[in-house]
Amino acid sequence: MGTYVNSGNIAFQEAVNSRIYIDKSELILYTNSILNTTQKNICVSRPRRFGKSMATEMLVAYYSKGCDSAKLFSGKKAEKDASFLTHLNHHNVIHLDIQQFLESERDLDIFIKEIEYSVIEELMEVFPECQGFDINSRLKTVLNKIFNQTNSGFIFIIDEWDCVFRLAKNQKDFQKEYLDFLRGLFKGQHYVDMAYMTGILPIKKYGDHSAINIFDEYSMISPKNLGKYFGFTEEEVQKQCVEHELDFAKVKEWYDGYQLGELHIYNPKSVSDVLTWKEFQSYWTGTETYEALKIYIDMNFDGLKESIIEMLSNGRCIIDPSTFQNDMTTFQIKDDVLTLLVHLGYLTYDKESQEVSIPNQEVAQEFMRVIKVGGWEGLVRAIENSEDLLKKTWMMDNTAVAGGIAKIHQETTSMLKYNNENSLTCVILMAYYSAKIYYMNPIMELPSGKGFADVVYLPKRNADYPAMIIELKWDKSAEGAIAQIKNKEYTDWIKDYSGDILLIGVNYNTEDKKHECTIEKWRKEL
What we know:
Blueprint: H1 10-17, H2 27-34, E1 41-45, H3 52-63, H4 84-87, E2 92-97, H5 98-101, H6 111-126, H7 139-150, E3 154-159, H8 163-167, H9 172-186, E4 192-199, E5 205-206, E6 209-210, E7 216-218, E8 232-233, H10 234-243, H11 248-255, E9 258-260, E10 263-266, H12 268-277, H13 291-297, H14 304-312, E11 317-318, H15 334-344, E12 348-350, E13 355-357, H16 361-373, H17 377-394, H18 398-411, H19 421-431, E14 443-448, E15 451-457, E16 467-474, H20 478-487, E17 501-509, E18 514-522
Helix pairs in contact: 1-3, 14-19, 17-18, 18-19
């Protein structure tokens, strides 16, 4: 048993022995199916503390000739499959955690050579009969020699593959050298039975193309068929909540929200900790300071702050993730920043609607910490006053609501383009921030009747609050906004809703910079 070649199963044994362990061994059935195929190279990227290392440790324990893991996998889901015994501890495995070779920037000059030296040293012990290389040879040369002389292939399991791009964010020369090393190690090499890499970032792109184009990528943007291995599924969390006597609804509110296709995935770090300690708090975000998030949301890309405001108010923003270059510095538009935040776990991406949103209460608290220290005072004050403004809306106090919206609009001029219709939408979302307690996510530009309502709030189930349909106008009139709601039959979309509906018209006059509001109650005739 070596450190890098044919290592053991101790790390996976510790995971199985842990108080909270959820069986993800069915991943093995998929990796077995791609061994020695054209799909044998895969890169799985997901946020920190989302189970990347546990998965690699499980695969090492299963495939490595350096251990006997039959008892360790006894009773696990993968054991039932016909392919399980065929590959159990039958492969030569090279396991690398790149972060172990890159503890600081001082290691950048030597880490590739250190990797090659360390692996070759162990290969010489495992294959003493092989000839034609020495400790100073290139790793790919040694592997080719061994394969040609023994016909023995290798499974490569590489954790934290992308730490070079996180440690040396702006050092392109080191990044290119590392990518060249990986390309040479894997591309076209017959000794590769499978290469399984994990990291936070997908493989670096240059333009529209991946720098290592032989890998199939599975990410928070495109999980493909591996989504259920990216965290805990809802069914798994429900079962654990019953077992540990914890309120599932509250766990869902705090830690759910990562949408991977049809799956809802929970943060495994946070769920494990809340099951253990029975206290609802920010476990995952607590492992890193808020400055990591602040750097990105403070970037002054056009429309970025408006998008953050919209999402903080439970809204969603459409993005195009295709321009993202899969690094932490190459940003051209706001979509690139928002795409990175998806990969980092601060946002979730709905592939069908192409929208991003803040996944849960834990992450929302992290965003709130950032804006409180980031010069977003107007937003903070708006959020603090939003509960009072919501109550004034329910009371249909037109003057108070107009005044509250005007104050928020004025206080956020440094953050938003003041004379812009999108800014008025953001103001409304800030004004009704507290609505997230009582209402479902706001629906933006809802297709209703004969047109589009600007913002619609529908109350949560069993909540006795009126629905709110809000129409915004620019240099027109609040009464005209109400008339449009009626004339275009916006209420038809919620015709099955039996409660009260407030029709809210808001107008902003650019000439005198005044706001007006008209609120009417509308109830469907039954």
